[in-house]
Amino acid sequence: MSFFTGTIYSKSMNMDTSLAVLLPQDSRKHRSLEESRNSIKPPRAAKTLILLHGYSDGYSAWLTRSSIARYAEDYDIAVLMPEVQHSFYQDMKNGLPYFSYITGELPRLASEMFNISTAAEDCMIAGLSMGGYGALYAGLTYPERFYGVGCFSSAFDLRAIAASVKSDSEPQAAGWDNDLRGIFGESPVFSEKSDLFILAEKNAKAPQKPKIYISCGTEDFLYQSNTAMRDLLSAQKYDLKYEEWPGTHEWGFWDLSVQKMLEHFLPAPS
Protein backbone atom coordinates (compact mmCIF):
# COMPACT_ATOMS: atom_id res chain seq x y z
CA MET A 1 0.00 0.00 0.00
CA SER A 2 1.31 3.43 -0.97
CA PHE A 3 0.25 6.77 0.45
CA PHE A 4 0.43 10.20 -1.20
CA THR A 5 -0.71 13.61 -0.05
CA GLY A 6 -0.45 16.88 -1.92
CA THR A 7 -2.41 19.00 -4.35
CA ILE A 8 -4.31 18.35 -7.51
CA TYR A 9 -5.45 21.01 -9.97
CA SER A 10 -9.19 21.23 -10.46
CA LYS A 11 -10.48 22.89 -13.61
CA SER A 12 -13.99 23.10 -12.22
CA MET A 13 -12.73 25.08 -9.23
CA ASN A 14 -9.87 26.79 -11.09
CA MET A 15 -7.43 26.10 -8.27
CA ASP A 16 -5.13 23.59 -6.61
CA THR A 17 -6.86 21.60 -3.90
CA SER A 18 -5.59 19.14 -1.28
CA LEU A 19 -5.96 15.42 -1.78
CA ALA A 20 -4.77 12.33 0.10
CA VAL A 21 -4.59 9.02 -1.75
CA LEU A 22 -4.06 5.42 -0.69
CA LEU A 23 -3.07 3.07 -3.52
CA PRO A 24 -2.61 -0.70 -3.73
CA GLN A 25 0.96 -1.17 -4.86
CA ASP A 26 2.51 -4.60 -4.76
CA SER A 27 0.01 -7.31 -3.79
CA ARG A 28 1.85 -8.01 -0.54
CA LYS A 29 0.00 -9.00 2.61
CA HIS A 30 2.02 -6.84 4.97
CA ARG A 31 -0.31 -7.50 7.88
CA SER A 32 0.79 -11.16 8.02
CA LEU A 33 4.46 -10.39 7.29
CA GLU A 34 4.55 -12.60 4.21
CA GLU A 35 7.48 -12.33 1.87
CA SER A 36 7.08 -10.05 -1.11
CA ARG A 37 5.55 -11.78 -4.08
CA ASN A 38 7.68 -10.11 -6.70
CA SER A 39 6.30 -9.80 -10.23
CA ILE A 40 2.74 -10.45 -9.05
CA LYS A 41 0.44 -7.64 -10.11
CA PRO A 42 -3.21 -7.10 -9.29
CA PRO A 43 -5.31 -8.61 -12.11
CA ARG A 44 -7.29 -5.41 -12.67
CA ALA A 45 -7.46 -1.77 -11.71
CA ALA A 46 -8.32 -1.41 -8.04
CA LYS A 47 -11.77 -0.58 -6.80
CA THR A 48 -12.05 2.91 -5.34
CA LEU A 49 -13.51 4.45 -2.19
CA ILE A 50 -14.05 8.23 -2.12
CA LEU A 51 -13.93 9.00 1.60
CA LEU A 52 -15.36 12.32 2.78
CA HIS A 53 -14.51 14.35 5.87
CA GLY A 54 -16.82 16.08 8.35
CA TYR A 55 -17.59 19.74 9.04
CA SER A 56 -14.82 20.31 11.59
CA ASP A 57 -12.23 18.16 9.79
CA GLY A 58 -10.19 18.30 6.60
CA TYR A 59 -8.90 15.90 3.98
CA SER A 60 -6.26 14.37 6.31
CA ALA A 61 -8.66 13.48 9.13
CA TRP A 62 -9.39 9.91 8.07
CA LEU A 63 -5.66 9.18 7.80
CA THR A 64 -4.70 10.64 11.15
CA ARG A 65 -7.69 9.53 13.22
CA SER A 66 -8.68 6.14 11.83
CA SER A 67 -7.02 2.97 10.53
CA ILE A 68 -8.27 3.40 6.97
CA ALA A 69 -4.81 2.67 5.53
CA ARG A 70 -4.85 -0.78 7.12
CA TYR A 71 -8.39 -1.50 5.94
CA ALA A 72 -7.58 -0.34 2.41
CA GLU A 73 -4.65 -2.73 2.33
CA ASP A 74 -6.80 -5.58 3.64
CA TYR A 75 -9.31 -5.09 0.82
CA ASP A 76 -6.77 -4.03 -1.84
CA ILE A 77 -8.68 -0.84 -2.70
CA ALA A 78 -7.71 2.73 -3.52
CA VAL A 79 -8.98 5.51 -1.26
CA LEU A 80 -9.38 9.16 -2.32
CA MET A 81 -9.73 11.71 0.48
CA PRO A 82 -10.53 15.19 -0.91
CA GLU A 83 -10.80 18.60 0.75
CA VAL A 84 -14.10 20.52 0.63
CA GLN A 85 -13.82 23.04 3.51
CA HIS A 86 -17.26 23.91 4.99
CA SER A 87 -19.12 23.52 1.70
CA PHE A 88 -21.45 20.70 2.78
CA TYR A 89 -20.51 19.13 -0.54
CA GLN A 90 -22.54 21.68 -2.51
CA ASP A 91 -21.92 23.66 -5.65
CA MET A 92 -21.88 26.83 -3.57
CA LYS A 93 -23.90 29.91 -4.44
CA ASN A 94 -21.06 32.19 -3.31
CA GLY A 95 -18.15 29.83 -3.45
CA LEU A 96 -16.73 26.84 -5.23
CA PRO A 97 -18.44 23.94 -7.08
CA TYR A 98 -17.34 21.21 -4.70
CA PHE A 99 -20.16 18.82 -5.59
CA SER A 100 -19.25 18.85 -9.29
CA TYR A 101 -15.61 18.31 -8.36
CA ILE A 102 -16.30 15.37 -6.02
CA THR A 103 -18.80 13.55 -8.23
CA GLY A 104 -17.36 14.24 -11.69
CA GLU A 105 -13.90 15.71 -12.02
CA LEU A 106 -12.14 13.94 -9.14
CA PRO A 107 -13.10 10.38 -10.19
CA ARG A 108 -12.05 11.11 -13.78
CA LEU A 109 -8.70 12.65 -12.80
CA ALA A 110 -7.93 9.90 -10.30
CA SER A 111 -8.62 7.09 -12.76
CA GLU A 112 -6.31 8.74 -15.30
CA MET A 113 -3.51 9.59 -12.88
CA PHE A 114 -3.45 6.52 -10.63
CA ASN A 115 -4.70 3.68 -12.86
CA ILE A 116 -7.62 2.87 -10.56
CA SER A 117 -11.20 2.11 -11.50
CA THR A 118 -13.91 4.65 -10.79
CA ALA A 119 -16.45 2.91 -13.02
CA ALA A 120 -19.85 2.57 -11.38
CA GLU A 121 -19.38 -1.10 -10.56
CA ASP A 122 -16.09 -0.34 -8.78
CA CYS A 123 -16.70 2.99 -7.03
CA MET A 124 -17.93 3.58 -3.49
CA ILE A 125 -18.44 6.89 -1.70
CA ALA A 126 -18.70 7.31 2.06
CA GLY A 127 -18.25 9.82 4.83
CA LEU A 128 -18.92 10.89 8.38
CA SER A 129 -21.34 13.58 9.60
CA MET A 130 -21.20 16.30 6.90
CA GLY A 131 -19.40 13.73 4.75
CA GLY A 132 -22.22 11.24 5.26
CA TYR A 133 -24.58 13.88 3.92
CA GLY A 134 -22.23 14.40 0.95
CA ALA A 135 -22.00 10.67 0.23
CA LEU A 136 -25.77 10.17 0.15
CA TYR A 137 -26.24 13.41 -1.79
CA ALA A 138 -23.86 12.05 -4.44
CA GLY A 139 -25.43 8.59 -4.46
CA LEU A 140 -28.99 9.88 -4.78
CA THR A 141 -28.16 12.56 -7.36
CA TYR A 142 -26.05 10.23 -9.52
CA PRO A 143 -27.23 6.72 -8.61
CA GLU A 144 -25.65 5.36 -11.79
CA ARG A 145 -22.12 6.42 -10.73
CA PHE A 146 -21.68 4.43 -7.48
CA TYR A 147 -22.39 0.89 -6.40
CA GLY A 148 -22.03 1.61 -2.68
CA VAL A 149 -22.76 4.58 -0.40
CA GLY A 150 -21.68 4.68 3.25
CA CYS A 151 -23.05 7.17 5.78
CA PHE A 152 -21.77 7.34 9.36
CA SER A 153 -23.47 9.55 11.99
CA SER A 154 -24.71 11.62 9.10
CA ALA A 155 -26.01 15.19 9.02
CA PHE A 156 -28.92 14.21 6.76
CA ASP A 157 -31.33 17.02 7.72
CA LEU A 158 -29.79 20.37 6.73
CA ARG A 159 -32.83 22.38 7.74
CA ALA A 160 -32.88 20.94 11.25
CA ILE A 161 -29.15 21.48 11.67
CA ALA A 162 -29.42 25.08 10.50
CA ALA A 163 -32.25 25.76 12.94
CA SER A 164 -30.45 24.17 15.89
CA VAL A 165 -27.15 25.96 15.27
CA LYS A 166 -28.82 29.34 14.76
CA SER A 167 -30.46 28.99 18.16
CA ASP A 168 -27.10 28.20 19.77
CA SER A 169 -25.25 30.84 21.77
CA GLU A 170 -21.85 29.37 20.98
CA PRO A 171 -19.44 31.23 18.64
CA GLN A 172 -19.86 28.49 16.04
CA ALA A 173 -23.37 29.79 15.34
CA ALA A 174 -21.98 32.94 13.70
CA GLY A 175 -19.63 30.84 11.60
CA TRP A 176 -22.51 28.62 10.48
CA ASP A 177 -24.47 31.70 9.34
CA ASN A 178 -21.52 32.71 7.16
CA ASP A 179 -21.25 29.21 5.73
CA LEU A 180 -24.95 29.12 4.94
CA ARG A 181 -24.73 32.38 3.02
CA GLY A 182 -21.77 31.05 1.09
CA ILE A 183 -23.52 27.79 0.23
CA PHE A 184 -27.09 28.91 -0.40
CA GLY A 185 -26.97 32.71 -0.85
CA GLU A 186 -27.49 35.81 1.26
CA SER A 187 -31.05 34.78 2.11
CA PRO A 188 -30.41 31.03 2.44
CA VAL A 189 -32.93 28.90 0.61
CA PHE A 190 -32.57 25.13 0.83
CA SER A 191 -33.36 23.82 -2.62
CA GLU A 192 -35.15 20.53 -3.20
CA LYS A 193 -32.07 19.11 -4.90
CA SER A 194 -30.09 19.43 -1.65
CA ASP A 195 -32.86 17.93 0.52
CA LEU A 196 -31.96 14.26 0.92
CA PHE A 197 -35.42 13.24 2.05
CA ILE A 198 -36.98 14.70 -1.11
CA LEU A 199 -34.22 13.19 -3.27
CA ALA A 200 -34.71 9.75 -1.73
CA GLU A 201 -38.41 9.75 -2.57
CA LYS A 202 -37.85 11.24 -6.02
CA ASN A 203 -35.28 8.64 -7.07
CA ALA A 204 -36.86 5.60 -5.43
CA LYS A 205 -37.82 4.12 -8.78
CA ALA A 206 -34.53 4.88 -10.55
CA PRO A 207 -33.51 1.89 -12.70
CA GLN A 208 -30.08 1.74 -11.07
CA LYS A 209 -29.47 2.57 -7.41
CA PRO A 210 -26.45 2.02 -5.17
CA LYS A 211 -26.41 -0.14 -2.10
CA ILE A 212 -26.52 2.00 1.03
CA TYR A 213 -24.93 1.42 4.43
CA ILE A 214 -25.92 3.69 7.35
CA SER A 215 -24.62 3.60 10.91
CA CYS A 216 -25.32 5.86 13.87
CA GLY A 217 -24.63 5.75 17.60
CA THR A 218 -27.68 5.57 19.80
CA GLU A 219 -26.37 8.53 21.87
CA ASP A 220 -25.44 10.64 18.85
CA PHE A 221 -27.12 14.06 18.61
CA LEU A 222 -27.97 13.20 14.97
CA TYR A 223 -29.62 9.89 15.87
CA GLN A 224 -33.17 11.05 15.14
CA SER A 225 -32.42 12.21 11.58
CA ASN A 226 -30.54 8.97 10.91
CA THR A 227 -33.47 6.80 11.98
CA ALA A 228 -35.81 9.01 9.94
CA MET A 229 -33.65 8.43 6.86
CA ARG A 230 -33.51 4.71 7.64
CA ASP A 231 -37.29 4.53 7.76
CA LEU A 232 -37.71 6.46 4.50
CA LEU A 233 -35.15 4.42 2.56
CA SER A 234 -36.65 1.18 3.86
CA ALA A 235 -40.16 2.25 2.91
CA GLN A 236 -38.95 3.18 -0.58
CA LYS A 237 -37.31 -0.26 -1.02
CA TYR A 238 -33.70 0.87 -1.27
CA ASP A 239 -31.02 -1.78 -0.81
CA LEU A 240 -30.18 -0.60 2.72
CA LYS A 241 -28.22 -1.98 5.62
CA TYR A 242 -28.68 0.06 8.79
CA GLU A 243 -26.73 -0.56 11.99
CA GLU A 244 -26.72 1.17 15.34
CA TRP A 245 -24.92 0.49 18.58
CA PRO A 246 -24.05 2.54 21.69
CA GLY A 247 -21.92 5.50 20.66
CA THR A 248 -21.62 9.23 20.21
CA HIS A 249 -20.25 11.54 17.50
CA GLU A 250 -16.62 10.42 17.66
CA TRP A 251 -13.80 8.69 15.80
CA GLY A 252 -13.96 5.34 17.54
CA PHE A 253 -17.48 4.93 16.18
CA TRP A 254 -16.51 6.04 12.66
CA ASP A 255 -13.44 3.80 12.53
CA LEU A 256 -15.61 0.80 13.31
CA SER A 257 -18.27 2.02 10.87
CA VAL A 258 -15.94 2.12 7.88
CA GLN A 259 -14.80 -1.43 8.70
CA LYS A 260 -18.38 -2.65 8.83
CA MET A 261 -19.21 -0.87 5.57
CA LEU A 262 -16.28 -2.49 3.75
CA GLU A 263 -17.30 -5.89 5.12
CA HIS A 264 -20.78 -5.30 3.72
CA PHE A 265 -19.79 -4.02 0.27
CA LEU A 266 -16.70 -6.10 -0.52
CA PRO A 267 -15.68 -9.76 -0.46
CA ALA A 268 -13.86 -10.77 2.71
CA PRO A 269 -10.07 -10.33 2.31
CA SER A 270 -8.28 -13.60 1.64
Can you put this structure into words, describing what you see?
The structure is a single chain. The protein has 270 residues and is of the alpha/beta class. It has a single domain (2-265), classed as Alpha/Beta hydrolase fold, catalytic domain (Rossmann fold, 3-Layer(aba) Sandwich). Helix content is 37%, strand content 19%. It contains 9 helices and 8 strands. The protein has helices at residues 61-65, 68-75, 98-114, 130-141, 158-166, 172-184, 196-202, 223-235, 251-265, and strands spanning 2-10, 15-23, 48-52, 78-82, 123-128, 148-152, 211-217, 240-245. It has an 8-stranded mixed β-sheet with strand order 1-2-4-3-5-6-7-8, sandwiched between helices. A hairpin with a 4-residue loop joins strand 1 (2-10) and strand 2 (15-23). The longest helix is centred in the middle third of the chain and has 17 residues, at 98-114. It is globular, with a radius of gyration of 18 Å. The two termini are 16 Å apart.
Write out key terms for the chains shown.
single chain, 270 residues, alpha/beta, Rossmann fold, 8-stranded mixed β-sheet, 9 helices, 8 strands, 19% strand
User: Unreliable runs, pLDDT <50, ≥5 residues?
Assistant: 30-37
Number of individual domains: 1
How much of the sequence lies in strands comes to: 15-25%
Mean pLDDT: 90
Q: Helix fraction?
A: 25-40%
CATH topology (level 3) name? Rossmann fold
Q: What is the H level of CATH, i.e. the homologous superfamily?
A: Alpha/Beta hydrolase fold, catalytic domain
Can you give me a brief rundown of this structure?
By secondary structure, the protein is α/β, with parallel strands linked by helices. The chain has helices spanning 61-65, 68-75, 98-114, 130-141, 158-166, 172-184, 196-202, 223-235, 251-265; strands spanning 2-10, 15-23, 48-52, 78-82, 123-128, 148-152, 211-217, 240-245. The protein has nine helices and eight strands.
